[in-house]
Amino acid sequence: MPTDVRCLVETDRSSAVIRVTGVLDQAGVDPVRDALLARLSDRPGPVVVDLSGLRVAEPAAAQVFAEVRREVLDWPAADLLLHDPSGTVAGVPAWPTLDEAMAALAAAPMAAVLTADLPPTVGAARHARQLVTDGCQRWGVPRLAEPGCIAVTEMVNNVVAHAHTPMTVRLAPRDSELHLAVRDHSARQPAYAGLAPLTSTGGRGLLLIDTVARRWGSSPIPGGKVVWCVLHPDDEAAARG
Fold first, then answer.
1. Radius of gyration of the chain (CA)
2. Residue 89: what pLDDT?
3. pLDDT category, 192, cuts 50, 70, 90?
4. How far apart are CA 236 and CA 216, in angstroms?
5. Dihedral pair phi/psi, residue 75, rounded to 5°
6. C-alpha span between 61 and 177 (Å, rounded)
7. β-bridge partners, 83
8. Which residues contact 123 (CB under 8 A, 6 or more apart)?
């Protein structure tokens, strides 16, 4: 996937390795960020970014890799590792050889992931709730099924009501947490303004997500966005008193 004329990002759906080559300066930051986010949103699982063919012309530009990692860590089953022979990139786990980076990737626990591609129709939320219920039972976190269903219903219904595009629902466990995400093809970002007036109609979906989730957010990506949330069983226990 070409990005800037001085910097090339090469991705392959069949591989967990992304190669960034050429010269990286501030002009290349946004294209590199977009290419990495597009790959990570397209396919679950951690990736290794191979920087052996990259020269960093401006040190500040190298921060893009740490920024992308921070952005995706709360997505289901997403992470970013580096093969960085120069050792100059901070804020991301890195190894001096590609073999070592791939060994670290292979040693990481295989993430369990459930994914569904859904149309923007009324029935989409029902399919998403079933996916969450099945996942919570399978992964031994049944207490998170109810808040997970609340969150995913609102996330999916926002796509149906506002984005009007096909969507991908994805969920994965991490430790005792449940990570949920819905990727759509609209650049329109959700707007959360806190508690809604009692006299208002609609607009309560994000409030519900904020209530049940430990944290949530929306990540702009090329051709759309990823809305995500993280649920923790301790929060559900506290809510039940």
1. 19
2. 94
3. low
4. 16
5. -70, 155
6. 33
7. 50, 95
8. none
- Residue 188 is given by DSSP the state P
Mean of pLDDT over the chain: 90
Q: Could you please report the per-residue DSSP string of 72-83?
A: HTTSTT--EEEE
Looking up tokens 């207490």, which residue turns up?
143
Contacts of 103 (CB under 8 A, 6+ apart): none
Give the bridge partners for 218, in sequence order.
Answer: 227
Residue environment code for 141-167, b if the CB has 16+ CB neighbours within 10 A, otherwise e: bebbbbbbbbbbbbbbbbbbeebeebb
d(CA 73, CA 124) in angstroms, rounded, equals 26
**The pLDDT of residue 187 is above 90:** yes
**To which residue do tokens 């986010």 refer?**
37
The DSSP H or E segment spanning 48 is: strand 47-50
The encoded tokens of residue 134 equal 């099945």
DSSP assignment letter at 159: I
Write the pLDDT tens digit of every residue in 136-153.
Answer: 999 999 999 999 999 999
CA distances from 231 to 24, 182, 213 (A): 37, 15, 5
Residues 186-201 have a mean pLDDT of: 62
Identify the bridge partners of residue 46 per DSSP, sorted by sequence position.
none
Q: Say which residue the tokens 């910097």 belong to.
A: 7
Distance between first and last Cα of the chain: 51
Query: What's the half-sphere exposure (Cβ side, CA atoms, 13 Å) at 127?
Result: 18
Q: Are 20 and 9 in contact (CB under 8 A)?
A: yes
